[in-house]
């Protein structure tokens, strides 16, 4: 498959942090994503009280929406600013604590306990730290991961989900020769080879 010049493209952690600092966050959706609403039944699969993972969560409004439905939400985000904005924009009290297993990482948890956001690199997480998940809402993570890190990302995600989990993935389709990304173009054939 032709991914154009994107194969070698790398966006650093510093660049992501700068996007948040500058307010250059066109990827953030204030109203929540229509595809999550459309396919919510597929994600939940008739189950309640799920543990739902938000990789590279930013300040996604869907986290509160799903928590309000009685699910337990866990996210990971490199930007502490994004995490703090999530809690303040939803007027949610929270506590902050270090994550002993990950140097420099913090975990922000709503005082209600049903939303836990890890502030660190996603690659520092493991199931021994965050547990396993019943569902994943991947709206902007796989398409934001550097192309060379996709296999590492997919392996981590597969390791973090329970056997009968649901994984809802949103990608974007366009000519990768005309846009350098992110969001990156991930052909369907690659999604199949990454996740099986």
Descriptive notes:
The chain has 196 residues and is α/β, with parallel strands linked by helices. It has 8 helices and 7 strands; from the N terminus they run αααβαβαβββαβαβα. A 7-stranded mixed sheet has the order 3-4-5-2-1-6-7. Strand 6 (133-138), helix 7 (150-160) and strand 7 form a beta-alpha-beta unit. It is globular, with a radius of gyration of 16 Å. The two termini are 17 Å apart. The model has no long low-confidence stretch (mean pLDDT 94). Belongs to the class I-like SAM-binding methyltransferase superfamily. TPMT family.
Class by SSE composition: alpha/beta
Number of strands: 7
Q: What is the multimeric organization of the chains shown? A: single chain
Biggest sheet strand line-up: 3-4-5-2-1-6-7
CATH architecture: 3-Layer(aba) Sandwich
Tell me the radius of gyration: 16 Å
The helix tally amounts to 8
**Amount of helix:** 25-40%
Number of domains: 1
Question: Would you list the SSEs in sequence order as H and E?
Answer: HHHEHEHEEEHEHEH
CATH topology-level name: Rossmann fold
Poorly predicted segments: none
- Could you tell me how far the N terminus lies from the C terminus, measured between alpha carbons in angstroms? 17 Å
Q: CATH superfamily, called what? A: Vaccinia Virus protein VP39
């Amino acid at each position: 498959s032709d991914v154009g010049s994107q194969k070698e493209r790398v966006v650093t952690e510093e660049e992501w942090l700068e996007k948040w600092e500058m307010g250059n966050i066109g990827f953030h959706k204030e109203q929540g994503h229509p595809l999550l609403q459309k396919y919510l039944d597929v994600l939940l699969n008739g189950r309640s009280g799920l543990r739902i993972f938000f990789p590279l969560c930013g300040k996604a409004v869907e986290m509160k929406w799903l928590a309000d439905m009685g699910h337990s939400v866990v996210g990971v985000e490199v930007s502490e600013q994004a995490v703090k904005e999530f809690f303040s924009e939803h007027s949610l009290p929270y506590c902050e604590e270090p994550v002993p297993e990950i140097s420099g990482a913090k975990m922000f948890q709503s005082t209600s306990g049903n939303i836990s956001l890890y502030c660190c690199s996603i690659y520092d997480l493991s199931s021994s730290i965050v547990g396993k998940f019943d569902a994943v809402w991947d709206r902007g993570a796989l398409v934001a991961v550097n192309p060379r890190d996709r296999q590492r990302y997919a392996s981590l995600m597969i390791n973090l989900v329970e056997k009968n989990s649901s994984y809802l993935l949103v990608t974007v389709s366009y000519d990768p020769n005309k846009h350098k990304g992110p969001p990156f173009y991930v052909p369907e054939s690659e999604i199949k080879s990454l996740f099986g």
